[in-house]
Design brief:
single chain
């Protein structure tokens, strides 16, 4: 089998990235907000609109990733290893959520610096742009190449973006803008990525089962490699 996936290296790379994200979250004040903030305020818990919206987003995340994302995911002959896959998904989800919140804080800081003051929707737009660009470049040209095993085709990559990732980010960021619930934002992203880790059967670092690494091809960005998706020979 050509292009063999190296699970030990993938976990080492992933946890190096996670550590950087936690450090950035601490430096930008995200961790401080989380330590001071309750999951929800008493006023929110008494608000039926808050409950309805939170439940709708939760239901969407469970359906989108549990049914749509998982149903379009290739796992080849990889083993089910629930404990390591759930653990990886939990750390992956929390770490990426912290980084998204770091970009949210960066958008607030940048707009305040340039315009002295800024509306929450200006922050939303800028943070959405930052996160979208980051996801498009980082996931395609780094994470799916060096951390995740092969789990998509070219078609499924596009379908997942349109059906799961974009709606999830849009709804959860709107909720964050309106209600400022950092913990719920983390909960939704972490739930999604735990499901992803289990669905693609993320190999444990001690796994001895050979599986495919991502197929790479040159991108339009200076010809740098990107994950192209599985293509049968």
């Amino acid at each position: 089998m050509n292009n063999i996936y190296n699970a030990k290296r993938a976990w080492l790379i992933a946890f190096s990235v996670f550590a950087c994200f936690w450090l950035l979250a601490w430096l930008t004040g995200v961790i401080d907000v989380l330590l001071r903030q309750a999951i929800a305020s008493p006023q929110q818990l008494a608000d039926p609109v808050w409950w309805l919206t939170a439940l709708l987003i939760t239901g969407f995340v469970l359906f989108a990733y549990g049914k749509l994302w998982s149903g379009k995911t290739l796992c080849f002959q990889r083993q089910r290893q629930p404990l390591s896959q759930i653990l990886f998904g939990l750390i992956w989800g929390v770490s990426f959520s912290l980084y998204f919140l770091t970009l949210w804080h960066f958008a607030q800081w940048l707009l305040t610096l340039v315009f002295i003051d800024s509306s929450i929707w200006a922050v939303w737009c800028l943070a959405y742009l930052f996160i979208s660009l980051w996801q498009a470049l980082f996931m395609d040209m780094f994470w799916d190449l060096y951390v995740s095993p092969e789990h998509d085709t070219a078609a499924s990559k596009q379908q997942k973006v349109m059906l799961t990732h974009i709606p999830n980010l849009t709804m959860s960021l709107i909720f964050l803008a309106v209600y400022q619930n950092y913990w719920l934002f983390i909960g939704w992203q972490t739930t999604a990525l735990v499901i992803c880790s289990v669905a693609m059967r993320m190999p444990s670092p001690w796994s001895e089962v050979q599986t495919l690494a991502a197929r790479a091809k040159p991108s339009i960005l200076f010809g740098l490699p990107r994950a192209a998706g599985y293509q049968s020979e």
